[in-house]
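// run 5 | inverse folding | seed 20
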């Protein structure tokens, strides 16, 4: 039995419906990610489930007696209520008694989210209030949990904890997120809201990307054929006399139907054209910090920090909330003077600053005036005057909305507007403090591409692990007590280097350099290349080919090196059953990888979606199952061969 079901639901707040005869089912154990462009209606769909709004048509059904908990996209307003009372309210709202087990659960959630139980909500920032509301949603152990952009304003440590908790959650989960690493780890299936329609894509996020690409190609081919036929019929009807002589009434009626279908067709919103104006190059040195320490009262935020940032560097800044990431940026750009130490800044710097609080936007002004500053209807882009309507269309703002106040915009739309304002000015230094919050996946990819092509210097604060990996060349990491260390590469590279350092410390090996990942070390040796994404169907990196001996295995008939000496432990002897299983592993893996390749080739055929959507779905589900079977097989192979 499903936990929640939408049956032929329609909902409209304007000319175009947000939901158009849409259906959806979510069952216990499902972890469903709802994705779609900003403004498509994802948050409205969640409000339908919670009865916050009612549909125009259709039925929204929630299993009787099911407990539903939500995390809204916007945090609660500040109040004089304590954190403990707010979180405990999640227990009471679910109709549960505040017994010792409930109090223990509340204490655990408060601790894991790093909350101060006695703090007042009025004293917390928006990010911390969001954590409190997340805790309130989690403590009630709901049957259905609805999370709207849960990772916004959470640091990486909190995001990882949330992922671990959701993997253990046994109820039904529906979440909206554009954090690709979060979606990849959690989602068991993807549901996309696109032009009023809900479509399920079983399997992982990467499977969705592959299937969606094929589906869009197929849609484009169909649309082109339809438009060609319509154009031919329009030419025929305009011949007038010839059309009347043929008296082909059926053809005339068919043309009218084609016109109706074309007018009803909802075009996919185009991709934005996000570009940044680049100023003349700055001096080679951008920033040089020497023994910088920053304290506030008796608290040390940054301790004895030294670094040199040169033109073209792309620096990611990683650390927990409150560690001092924004403080570091303010020190570098000159908005704050250090308690001790010096910061030297280079010449000819022109900075573009993306502020996560969006303080640069005037909430009382229109969309257009926020870009032009109220100075007219044109702006100068790359030295040429351009109408603001044309410029904002690149950021997916239609002309009819230019005079609307920004109070009417969603969080993602406000971020897009801030990007438009930011990139309208030439720069050679891009400072971005949490730019990815609320952006949909496609806008995020455009932003990534823009930053990747930017020839200036980048300072990036972000908790989006995939974004960091894709755009930075080195990271500055807050590692406690004001200590900042520098590492080559992005987030994944930092994790690898940190694990390697921990392993060296555990084994007693002396590291060759206290900051092995720093650019000082990197200057002496090429930076390690990031591992490429595995090709579907190809053997895992480092894994032996099926049927071939594993690396290091003795050749048949060759003496075995390292034979046990008297008194040494004897190698483990496999049972007859385990030995047969081990002997059959290469053949099993070869068969599974062959099936994997066949399924990928099948799904890559765009015609499959038109010919048999059910077969396409079944193939995607089987592909996911095969991938899991391969993981199990490789793990079992290693376990059987372990000494």
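// decoded
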């Amino acid at each position: 039995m499903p936990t929640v079901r939408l049956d032929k639901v329609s909902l409209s707040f304007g000319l175009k419906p947000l939901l158009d005869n849409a259906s959806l089912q979510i069952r216990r154990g499902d972890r469903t990610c709802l994705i779609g462009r900003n403004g498509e209606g994802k948050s409205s769909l969640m409000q339908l489930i919670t009865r916050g709004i009612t549909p125009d048509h259709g039925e929204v059904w929630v299993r009787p007696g099911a407990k539903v908990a939500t995390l809204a996209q916007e945090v609660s307003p500040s109040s004089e209520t304590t954190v403990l009372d707010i979180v405990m309210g999640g227990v009471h709202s679910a109709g549960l008694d505040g017994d010792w087990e409930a109090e223990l659960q509340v204490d655990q959630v408060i601790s894991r989210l790093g909350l101060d139980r006695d703090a007042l909500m009025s004293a917390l920032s928006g990010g911390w209030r969001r954590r409190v509301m997340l805790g309130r949603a989690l403590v009630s152990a709901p049957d259905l949990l609805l999370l709207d952009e849960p990772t916004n304003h959470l640091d990486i440590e909190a995001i990882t904890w949330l992922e671990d908790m959701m993997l253990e959650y046994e109820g039904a989960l529906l979440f909206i997120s554009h954090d690709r690493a979060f979606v990849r780890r959690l989602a068991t299936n993807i549901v996309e809201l696109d032009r009023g329609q809900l479509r399920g894509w079983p399997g992982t996020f990467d499977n969705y990307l592959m299937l969606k690409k094929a589906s869009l190609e197929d849609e484009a081919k169909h649309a082109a054929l339809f438009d060609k036929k319509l154009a031919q019929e329009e030419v025929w009807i305009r011949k007038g006399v010839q059309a009347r002589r043929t008296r082909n009434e059926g053809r005339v009626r068919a043309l009218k139907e084609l016109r109706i279908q074309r007018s009803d067709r909802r075009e996919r919103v185009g991709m934005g054209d996000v570009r940044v104006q680049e100023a003349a190059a700055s001096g080679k040195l951008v920033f040089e910090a020497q023994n910088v320490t920053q304290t506030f009262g008796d608290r040390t935020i940054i301790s004895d920090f030294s670094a040199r940032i040169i033109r073209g560097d792309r620096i990611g800044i990683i650390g927990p909330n409150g560690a001092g990431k924004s403080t570091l940026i303010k020190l570098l750009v000159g908005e704050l003077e250090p308690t001790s130490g010096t910061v030297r800044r280079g010449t000819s710097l022109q900075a573009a600053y993306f502020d996560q609080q969006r303080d640069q936007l005037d909430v009382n002004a229109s969309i257009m005036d926020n870009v032009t500053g109220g100075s007219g209807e044109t702006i100068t882009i790359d030295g040429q005057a351009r109408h603001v309507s044309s410029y904002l269309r690149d950021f997916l703002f239609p002309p009819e909305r230019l005079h609307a106040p920004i109070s009417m915009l969603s969080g993602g739309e406000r971020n897009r507007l801030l990007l438009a304002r930011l990139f309208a000015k030439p720069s050679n230094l891009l400072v971005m403090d949490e730019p990815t919050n609320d952006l949909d996946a496609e806008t995020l990819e455009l932003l990534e591409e823009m930053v990747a092509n930017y020839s200036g210097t980048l300072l990036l604060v972000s908790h989006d692990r995939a974004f960091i990996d894709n755009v930075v060349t080195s990271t500055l990491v807050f590692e406690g007590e004001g200590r900042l260390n520098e590492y080559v590469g992005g987030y994944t590279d930092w994790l690898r280097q940190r694990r390697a350092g921990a392993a060296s410390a555990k084994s007693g090996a002396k590291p060759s350099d206290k900051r092995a990942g720093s650019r000082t070390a990197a200057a002496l040796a090429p930076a390690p290349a990031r591992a490429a994404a595995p090709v579907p169907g190809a053997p895992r990196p480092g894994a032996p080919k099926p049927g071939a001996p594993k690396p290091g295995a003795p050749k048949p008939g060759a003496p075995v090196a390292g034979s046990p000496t008297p008194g040494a432990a004897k190698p483990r002897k496999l049972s007859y059953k385990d030995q047969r299983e081990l002997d059959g592993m290469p053949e099993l893996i070869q068969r599974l990888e062959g099936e994997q390749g066949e399924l990928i080739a099948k799904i890559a055929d765009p015609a499959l979606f038109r010919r048999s959507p059910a077969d396409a779905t079944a193939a995607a589900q089987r592909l996911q199952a095969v991938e899991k079977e391969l993981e199990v097989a490789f793990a079992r192979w290693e376990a059987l061969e372990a000494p």
